[in-house]
């Protein structure tokens, strides 16, 4: 089992985990099969150039969308990215809105996360030693700034805050659940933002979520509530500009990290050797 990027293997500095609509934004793409101690990632990883940066792209659900949110190999995806040299990750995703202020077509860069998933592997450190990483601010401050400023440059004023609650899925919420989440002050709801965020932190990677609102969740919508049809329609209408913002953010990320994400594991004795 090889987890290290070998001399002949292409490397990348920035990772993007997103839908398959993101393949086309890289130039000179090469696909790499990576194995990890946690199994293979969702699919071979596409590595290419973007604005002079080396970028690795993981199609979160697999190229043919075979992994529903609760079955995505999150640990393998993050481990594979780190083994290729990636240290900063941008994670675009589709979300619902828990407040009428953030309608479909809104771009939000959340600053907080609430985990309502269950039964997903949430850590790399299952045995050998207890590892407790700091997670009070789950997203990279530098990555968030890059995302917000890139959206502004692209003419798409983003919402520079918000709490993303991540549910287990794959079903959507009941009206009662949705109203309950909203009553906590949580503003966005999705199914894939966790454990992706904490697994990135556990590998000392910077992680930034870019949330495209595709629907109003069940609690604030009269009628049928969320349908997959509506989600896909709004996503399709916005994928080009979301890709544009992610590309701008790739350019804006610093070559050298000065944020706390980089040093979060300093002084902690790890039971695993990181790639
Ligand atoms: Zn960071």
Automatic annotation (TrEMBL):
<feature type="site" description="Important for substrate specificity">
    <location>
        <position position="173"/>
    </location>
</feature>
<dbReference type="GO" id="GO:0006166">
    <property type="term" value="P:purine ribonucleoside salvage"/>
</dbReference>
<dbReference type="GO" id="GO:0005829">
    <property type="term" value="C:cytosol"/>
</dbReference>
<comment type="function">
    <text>Catalyzes the reversible phosphorylation of S-methyl-5'-thioadenosine (MTA) to adenine and 5-methylthioribose-1-phosphate. Involved in the breakdown of MTA, a major by-product of polyamine biosynthesis. Responsible for the first step in the methionine salvage pathway after MTA has been generated from S-adenosylmethionine. Has broad substrate specificity with 6-aminopurine nucleosides as preferred substrates.</text>
</comment>
<dbReference type="Pfam" id="PF01048">
    <property type="entry name" value="PNP_UDP_1"/>
</dbReference>
<dbReference type="InterPro" id="IPR000845">
    <property type="entry name" value="Nucleoside_phosphorylase_d"/>
</dbReference>
<keyword id="KW-0328">Glycosyltransferase</keyword>
<feature type="site" description="Important for substrate specificity">
    <location>
        <position position="228"/>
    </location>
</feature>
<dbReference type="InterPro" id="IPR035994">
    <property type="entry name" value="Nucleoside_phosphorylase_sf"/>
</dbReference>
<dbReference type="GO" id="GO:0019509">
    <property type="term" value="P:L-methionine salvage from methylthioadenosine"/>
</dbReference>
<feature type="binding site">
    <location>
        <position position="20"/>
    </location>
    <ligand>
        <name>phosphate</name>
    </ligand>
</feature>
<keyword id="KW-0660">Purine salvage</keyword>
<dbReference type="InterPro" id="IPR010044">
    <property type="entry name" value="MTAP"/>
</dbReference>
<protein>
    <recommendedName>
        <fullName>S-methyl-5'-thioadenosine phosphorylase</fullName>
        <ecNumber>2.4.2.28</ecNumber>
    </recommendedName>
</protein>
<feature type="binding site">
    <location>
        <begin position="215"/>
        <end position="217"/>
    </location>
    <ligand>
        <name>substrate</name>
    </ligand>
</feature>
<feature type="binding site">
    <location>
        <position position="191"/>
    </location>
    <ligand>
        <name>substrate</name>
    </ligand>
</feature>
<comment type="pathway">
    <text>Amino-acid biosynthesis; L-methionine biosynthesis via salvage pathway; S-methyl-5-thio-alpha-D-ribose 1-phosphate from S-methyl-5'-thioadenosine (phosphorylase route): step 1/1.</text>
</comment>
<feature type="binding site">
    <location>
        <position position="192"/>
    </location>
    <ligand>
        <name>phosphate</name>
    </ligand>
</feature>
<feature type="binding site">
    <location>
        <begin position="60"/>
        <end position="61"/>
    </location>
    <ligand>
        <name>phosphate</name>
    </ligand>
</feature>
<keyword id="KW-0808">Transferase</keyword>
<comment type="subunit">
    <text>Homohexamer. Dimer of a homotrimer.</text>
</comment>
<dbReference type="GO" id="GO:0017061">
    <property type="term" value="F:S-methyl-5-thioadenosine phosphorylase activity"/>
</dbReference>
<comment type="similarity">
    <text>Belongs to the PNP/MTAP phosphorylase family. MTAP subfamily.</text>
</comment>
<feature type="domain" description="Nucleoside phosphorylase">
    <location>
        <begin position="13"/>
        <end position="250"/>
    </location>
</feature>
């Amino acid at each position: 089992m090889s987890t290290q990027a070998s001399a002949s293997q292409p490397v990348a500095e920035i990772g993007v985990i997103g839908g398959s609509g993101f393949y086309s934004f890289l130039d000179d793409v090469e696909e790499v099969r990576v194995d990890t101690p946690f199994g293979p990632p969702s699919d071979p990883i596409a590595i290419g150039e973007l604005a002079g940066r080396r970028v690795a792209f993981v199609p979160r659900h697999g190229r043919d969308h075979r992994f529903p949110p609760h079955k995505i190999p999150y640990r393998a995806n993050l481990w594979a990215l780190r083994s290729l040299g990636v240290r900063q990750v941008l994670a675009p995703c589709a979300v619902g809105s828990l407040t009428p202020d953030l309608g479909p077509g809104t771009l939000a860069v959340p600053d907080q996360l609430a985990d309502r998933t269950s039964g997903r592997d949430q850590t790399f450190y299952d045995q050998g030693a207890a590892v407790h990483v700091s997670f009070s601010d789950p997203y990279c401050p530098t990555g968030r700034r890059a995302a917000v400023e890139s959206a502004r440059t692209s003419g798409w004023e983003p919402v520079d805050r918000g709490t993303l609650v991540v549910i287990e899925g794959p079903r959507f919420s009941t009206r009662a659940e949705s109203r309950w989440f909203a009553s906590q002050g949580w503003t966005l709801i999705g199914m894939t933002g966790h454990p992706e965020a904490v697994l990135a932190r556990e590998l000392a990677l910077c992680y930034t979520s870019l949330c495209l609102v595709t629907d109003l969740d069940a609690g604030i919508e009269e009628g049928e509530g969320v349908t997959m049809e509506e989600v896909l329609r709004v996503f399709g209408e916005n994928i080009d500009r979301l890709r544009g913002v992610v590309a701008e953010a790739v350019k804006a990320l610093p070559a050298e990290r000065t944020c706390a994400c980089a040093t979060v594991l300093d002084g902690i004795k790890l039971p695993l050797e990181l790639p």
